Amino acid sequence: MLKAILWDNDGVLVDTETLYYRANRETLAEIGIELTEEQYLSISLDQGQSVVNLARYRGCTDEQISDLRQKRDLRYIGLLKQGVRVFPGVEETLRFFHGKIAMGLVTSSPRPYFDVIHRQTGFLPFFNLILTREDYEKAKPDPEPYLKALERSGLEPGECVVIEDTKRGLEASRAAGIPCIIIPNSYTRHQGFSGAWHVISDIRKLPSLIGPPST
């Protein structure tokens, strides 16, 4: 019996990837590196690595790269504060499930970013459990984030479903033994999602796909 939905945040609920790409692109441009969208997709989303490390090819030291990350982080938070786009159908879908089934947020986003985002969305009351990047050691595709969510909720893998948008999220979910539904976005639809329970094009299809738990 399904008892909980575990949601990814960025790319599923909110369209922040365009802002993060912009923050990285503008920061690297300051040292003469032109970050293309293709590079960003490959390094950041597919490999889960930091594009700021491209600065090493310009001879930047570890200290200089650390400074670039700080600049990038400040620029990203500034962009988030200007406004975060919520994907169509998110609020109505969360409202559909709220009060019918437990919901958790399991994100790779650090808490400072997360807090800025959700001060705008007002979504946090929908969730029974929230894990940000500070709550676990190994990020997706490692299963630790979802295993930690199971531990804190007291649920078994078969009692949950994960909602993700990336292959790395899918791999983390599968490694934790939890079925995963993928909702690709414009930044991730090129990825392969073999092993997903379902791949759907619109979050508004979720209620009819999994429905509320039977009573």
In short:
The chain has 215 residues and is α/β, with parallel strands linked by helices.
Describe this structure in words.
By secondary structure, this protein is an alpha/beta fold. It has 2 domains: 4-15 and 85-210, HAD superfamily/HAD-like (Rossmann fold), CATH 3.40.50; 17-82, DNA polymerase, domain 1. It has helices at residues 17-29, 37-46, 62-82, 90-97, 111-121, 144-153, 167-175, 206-210; strands at 4-7, 102-106, 129-131, 160-164, 180-182, 198-199. β4 (160-164), α7 (167-175) and β5 (180-182) form a beta-alpha-beta unit. It is globular and about 55 Å long. The mean pLDDT is 95.
What tags apply to this protein structure?
6 strands; 215 residues; alpha/beta; 2 domains; DNA polymerase, domain 1; Rossmann fold
List the helices and strands and how they pair.
Elements: E1 4-7, H1 17-29, H2 37-46, H3 62-82, H4 90-97, E2 102-106, H5 111-121, E3 129-131, H6 144-153, E4 160-164, H7 167-175, E5 180-182, E6 198-199, H8 206-210
Parallel strand pairs: 1-2, 1-4, 2-3, 4-5, 5-6
